[in-house]
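re: ur msg from earlier - yeah i can do the pyridoxal-5'-phosphate complex, just paste it... oh wait u already did. ok heres what im feeding in:
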Amino acid sequence: MAFNIEKIRAQFPILTEQVYGKPLVYLDNAATTQKPQVVIDKIAEVYCHYNANVHRGVHHLSNVATTAMEDARKVVANFIGAPSVENIIFTRGATESLNLVAYTVGERFITENDEIIVSEMEHHSNLVPWQIVAQRKGAKVVKWAFNDAGELDLNQLEKLITPHTKIVAVTHVSNTLGTVNPVEQIAQIAHRNNVMVLIDGSQSIPHIKIDVQKMDCDFFVFSGHKIYGPTGIGALYGKTQLLEQLPPYQGGGEMIESVSFDKTTYNVLPYKFEAGTPNYVGIIVLAEALQFVQSIGIEQIATYEQELLNYATQRILSIDSVKPIGTAANKASVLSFVVNGAHPYDVGMILDKMGIAVRTGTHCTEPVMQHYGIPGTVRASFAFYNTKQEIDMLHDALVRAVKMFS
Ligand code: PLP
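and the outut:
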């Protein structure tokens, strides 16, 4: 499919909605993305034609659903460059993937006085699970601070790593600052020191071509709803040799090989980590979303979105009294800012009344707010269905909002 913005927008039915009688300008894509018609249709297709529980049925529908689910696993593996389907574990989303890794890595590898390096820009879901592990194991979470531009310093990482360090947990793209972190170099530094690396790909997967083997991360997580797929489905990639060493996260059906009161043995990868009926509808529909993205081309998407971000940065920051939060040299699709003399929430409320959906607050990154000593930011985040006209509308609405506050 060629990159034709009108054709692309026409595939997202929600984009023609009106709010308060005004055209919807949806700039909250870092929170969740809108869904194309093919994704919406796929949900109905599964329920209308082959809904049946997977993996344990001999009947036709169960086989069709199982094949569709396992084909979807191939699509996910291919999308992120994983070597095999056994590396792909389906979860409810990035948060569950992160908790799974923190819990199982904690059980298997972390003992008293060990250290877990977590960057200061992490979403709470890549900080709190590690704090829980640290508390359980008597280990320590070590903060990898960013500079005022919102960039992480690799020399600083070298200094933070000690013989006690077990894992570095860092986001690929910051959901608040937009920073794109140098994940390949981070992995190199960590591995040189025998330290594992987890990359939170929640905000990179819709914007950047992902190749987990090139990145050489040990774990990579993402959520389907951030990449035009449904809610309640996500994935975890892990290296085979590590996943094999980790204990199960939850017990139940699917994750076992055999069960008796005396001894239970566990299933092979990836099923060892997929207890219970999986969200097979979500999985099948997620694959549809990924194929939709592939049909447009992630490189084309990235180029277009970079243009949007540059345009938005230049337009929005031309307004007096608007100050950016997050000015890293390498950014993707997120523009956070504060308005002098106005609480972000009030700015967001005014923009909303003009039909513009942005997010305000701490974006589940309270340590980022503490770094800058601010209560929150206004965040506009872009997807490839957004346009320069929409950014102009944000600009004009913001000019009006600023006037109201001055
Ligand atoms: N990590 C980052 C960087 C995020 O932006 C988010 C969601 O905003 C998450 C993790 C959590 O994702 P989910 O709520 O889909 O589990």
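cool cool. The chain has two domains: 5-30+298-405, 41-295. ping me if u need the other ligands too
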